[in-house]
Every structure is written in structure tokens, then in C-alpha cells.
Amino acid sequence: MIFVIAKGTVMKARVVYESIFGNTKAIAEAIAEGLAARFETETVEIASASESAAGLDLIVIGGPTHAWAMSRPTTREAGRAQARKLGIDPVSGDTGVREWLARVVDGAGTKAAVFDTAVESFGIFSGGSAAKGEAKAFRRAGFELIDEPQQFRVAVKDDRTVLIAGELERARKWGEQLAERAAP
Ligand SMILES: Cc1cc2nc3c(=O)[nH]c(=O)nc-3n(C[C@H](O)[C@H](O)[C@H](O)COP(=O)(O)O)c2cc1C
Question: What pTM did the predictor assign?
């Protein structure tokens, strides 16, 4: 059921993702499923996502952690090369969350939440977080963050990254929680 706050007013959410191997895309779709109970929700790959939040009640955005942070053109190229070697068609191209954010003029107080994906264990170091940088940039751009940045984990198996068990369900639940927070 779509959440309606007044006659003719439908709450609208957009989930935007950047992804090379498809894991962040799968998480984005699960978040959207959770939001869909209360919001009219669309899921959009970052290159096709408008920089304007006009008409939206909530925007959720996420991308993979590359080199401890949001991806850069060089890390994306490395990721795409790795994907092609494995016979995987990379999901995203030249535009990443970083480039998208640089084009945002004004979040106009729109409610927002950010997430990333990262490997389960990255040697003895923390694997870092793209979403922490996303959160800072979102605040600077005038969005209102309604939750802490979230991280979803992948494992590396035979050179491939796969979501660890339970992450899709956690993402769906997070979507439901965001919908509850963002609804009036
Ligand atoms: C070039 C490159 C750099 C990466 N750097 C990190 C890192 O610093 N920390 C980490 O946890 N994972 C790192 N990863 C793993 C990615 O986070 C992982 O591939 C991603 O979450 C998978 O999402 P996707 O399937 O949507 O591309 C890196 C991956 C690539 C390709």
C-alpha cells in the first residue's frame, strides 16, 4: 500500500545506486522494497539520476567502498576491468556518487539516507566506508540525513564479490525503518 498523507498526495522516494559487480544494486533494490510499503518508490542507476530532489520526500543513495572511500574514476576503471575479466558486465559507467554529488546544487532540506557496500574483512584494517563521505557531502549539499550511514557487506569468493547471508533482508528492513522515520 502506498502511504498517502492527504487526498491526492503520495509520498515519493528514490533510491539511487552506483555499482560495478551488482551487489550495491541488489542492496538498493532491497531497500526500495522496504520503502515501497509506505512510499511510491523508484530505483535509479546513478548515471540516470537527476541531481534535483524536487518532488521527492526521501532520497537514499549508495555506492561501493573503493580505496576506503567513495569510488573515483581510477578505482572504477580498475573495478570494471576486473569485472570484465570475470565475464561480468559492469553495472555503472563513468558516473559515481562523487561526481553526482558535485553536481547537486541544493538538497533543499530533503530527507536523505546513505549507504555503501564493503568487503567483510579487509586484512587487519578496517575496509573504510564510502557512506561516511557520502553523509558529509549530503549534509553540505543541504539534505537532512535521517539515519546514520549504513554499510552492507560482501565476501570475496573465487575473485567474485557476493553479498553475505542476511544482508538483503537487513537492507529491506532498513528501508522499512527509513520509511517509518520519513513519513509524517
Ligand atoms: C578498485 C577497488 C577498490 C576497493 N577498495 C575497497 C576498500 O578500500 N575497502 C573495502 O572494504 N572494499 C573495497 N573494495 C571492494 C568493494 O567494496 C566491493 O567490490 C563492492 O562493495 C562490491 O559492490 P558492487 O558489486 O556494487 O560493485 C574495492 C573494490 C575495488 C574494485
Answer: 0.94
